[in-house]
Amino acid sequence: MSDALLFTPIQVGKTRLNNRIVMAPMTRSRAGAGDAATTLNATYYAQRASAGLIVSEASQISQQGQGYAWTPGIYSEAQVSGWKTVVDAVHAQGGHMALQLWHVGRISHPLLQPGGADPVAPSAIQAKGQCFVIQPDGTPANVPTALPRALALNELPGIVADYANAAHNAVKAGFDFVEVHAANGYLLNQFLSPNSNQRTDAYGGSLENRARFLLEVVDAVVAAIGADKVGVRLSPQGVFNDIDDPESTAMALYLAKAFTQRNLAFLHIAEPDWAGGQPLSQEFRLQLREAFVGTLITCGGYNATTAEALLGANLADMVAFGRPFIANPDLVRRLRENAPLNEPDPNTFYGGAEAGYTDYPALA
Ligand SMILES: Cc1cc2nc3c(=O)[nH]c(=O)nc-3n(C[C@H](O)[C@H](O)[C@H](O)COP(=O)(O)O)c2cc1C
User: Fold this and answer.
1) Residue 298 sits in which domain range?
2) String of DSSP letters for 195-246
């Protein structure tokens, strides 16, 4: 496949990426003290730096934004410095990297929240789902997500400011881009979806109202670091974390147009089928392509052949690979040479150390 589109460079914002293969954001729950990224995390990402772009695992913008133990943050000085070690290692290998900005909203538990508070959400509606905590006796456990409290109107500007501050920190750490995580049922997706957002103020009700909070976040992040460094991840038709939104494709198209007006660098679509949603239609892919003029990335269940076909049909500019990158640090080379792929082991996806993280073999 060495002459394939996948291996051609692409300009995104002010940055030239070496190829059109993206490493998808993947939570691996291996942050260190103070939820800061470590040298082990740097080794893991540097091993995968031949991707045209790495999108980091989701990184909480505040302690309130955390929903799982051992995930890295981007709000303290130690966290900025931990991430700087990672980005420096990726840049040293010639790679480029975006930080995924995360607030989990209702997918959390008082054990993870500041002062043991209830998690926050657009509305006080509990999600059917799990989060991962360290229990008071020190043992880790998957527990049902807690009943959240609805955010008061006057709390929203503080969360917008947390996103802007996190974006500023990301650039300070050396990231080439940030990706605002508005997918997979976390806070921003909870605002978009009517089953998790039943507000009666300007942030709930109509599609435009439900989109308002995300657009305020995007505007603040753009003001902090510039639109050419900003992308957003959406998951139209996604059902993960108890999202049920009959208007999710209309919402994605509305947002894609709003992102075009704001000159965002990229839009990243997390396709639904890997997590139980209905596959995207060809018609929707075409509409999305027309609605967003920046770099369009898509992700979910791709291999070299299907990714190349999508680029060939001009339905995306880049394709992201998730699980294949866990098990294949040299995925780009393997795709180019049609080499066999290592299989990922789901038992080591979350938590632990080197095993199942930095010890997958590269080709000789
Ligand atoms: C272990 C694991 C962790 C993930 N963590 C995140 C995350 O932090 N942020 C996110 O947007 N998606 C996350 N995802 C979803 C992936 O980015 C991707 O959409 C999904 O794995 C489908 O792509 P694939 O079939 O190439 O693996 C995660 C997926 C896996 C398997």
Assistant:
1) 5-348
2) TT----STTSSSHHHHHHHHHHHHHHHHHHH-GGGEEEEE-TT--TTT---T
